[in-house]
Amino acid sequence: MLPRFPAVTRCLSLAALLAAGPAAALEFPLPPPGEDVIGQVQVIKAKYEDTFADIGTANDLGYLEMIAANPGVDPWLPGAGTEIILPTRFILPPGPREGIVINLAEYRMYYYPKGQNVVHTYPLGIGREGWGSPIANTKVTAKTPNPTWTPPASIRKEHAEDGDILPTVVPAGPDNPLGPFKFTLGVPGYLIHGSNKKFGIGMRTSHGCFRMFNNNVLELAKMAPVGVPVRIINEPYKFGLSAGKVYLEAHTPLDDKGDPSVVDKHTAVINALLKREDLANNLRMNWDMVRDVVAAEDGMPVEIAVPNGAGGPAPMVSSVPYDMQ
């Protein structure tokens, strides 16, 4: 059943892999303090007419998330009966669990409603090359239903060069690129908003703003108030604890200068681990598995270590091998 899945995927528990059925919405109970992993990976069977865009929309997953989790499967014609992995298991982003947290590297938002012991997570479209989304600590400064759109001069110029003359103001409605709702951020010129296109969520397609599925942005609008903090990070490698085991989740790094080298990726992994002071000096690490996870970049948490003193497989070492330094 599993030969086409990435090798690291086979390290997930069988129960996690076979938890079938699509999620209606990605809302999870917050794990207790010291725990970081939420959700379960699911597997469904594609219908003849399914595409990754359709499956992603139905399951709150972005296009590139689906691609990464299902290498070798045609995203436009998976084929009836083809098993499709839904990567609906996540390591929570590092840092405070409050407000809105956007991790650019995974094209995903996490929202922690104040006073509730849950987390909501949504796929995002982010800034394309040359129009990168910012890394910032900011907040929501305004909420606007049915927004109009006034294209900035830079965007109007870009479209005009392609023969597409934009109006000065685009009225609210189904043709508005902002969709049915927008959140204005404290970083000038940047928004969280819906879209008039289904395709592009979970990809680098915007001029720097954060695009959401329309049903997601409307759901968020009911929960997130003006003033809610927004923390925007870029963390392709996330470490997390769950049930006494240590997991690594790896995404393709965002780099407008080209693909980072293997050495650069390994350095980034070590730096991400060192930020976790609760883990960095207290692990028996399976570095072979770490290399596999980093190479796969499939966006799913994989067990790579146990804390010193815990039970687990023997071939783990605590020192960093030369080729990971």
Describe this structure in words.
This protein folds into 3 domains: 7-26 and 34-88, Roll (Membrane-bound Lytic Murein Transglycosylase D, Chain A); 99-233, L,D-transpeptidase catalytic domain-like, CATH 2.40.440; 237-324, no CATH class. The protein has helices at residues 14-17, 52-58, 63-69, 153-161, 214-223, 262-275, 287-296, and strands spanning 27-29, 37-39, 42-45, 83-86, 89-91, 99-103, 108-112, 118-123, 126-127, 136-145, 181-185, 191-193, 204-206, 210-211, 229-233, 237-242, 245-250, 283-285, 302-307. The strands form 5 sheets. It has a 9-stranded mixed β-sheet, covered by helices on one side. Strands 16-17-19-18 form a 4-stranded antiparallel β-sheet. Strands 2-5 form a two-stranded antiparallel ribbon. It has 7 helices and 19 strands. The two termini are 36 Å apart. Helices cover 19% and strands 26% of the residues.
The total beta strand count reads 19
- Strand content range: 25-35%
Distance between the termini: 36 Å
Q: Structural class, judged by helices and strands?
A: alpha+beta
SSE order, one letter for each helix or strand: HEEEHHEEEEEEEHEEEEHEEEHEHE
Main pleated-sheet profile: 9 strands, mixed
Question: What is the CATH class designation of the largest domain?
Answer: Mainly Beta
Low-pLDDT residue spans: 1-24, 312-318
User: What's the CATH superfamily of the largest domain, by name?
Assistant: L,D-transpeptidase catalytic domain-like
Strand order of the largest sheet: 1-8-7-6-15-10-11-12-14
- How big is the Rg? 20 Å
- Give the number of domains: 3
- Average pLDDT score: 84
CATH architecture field of the largest domain: Beta Barrel
Helix segment count? 7
Dominant shape: globular
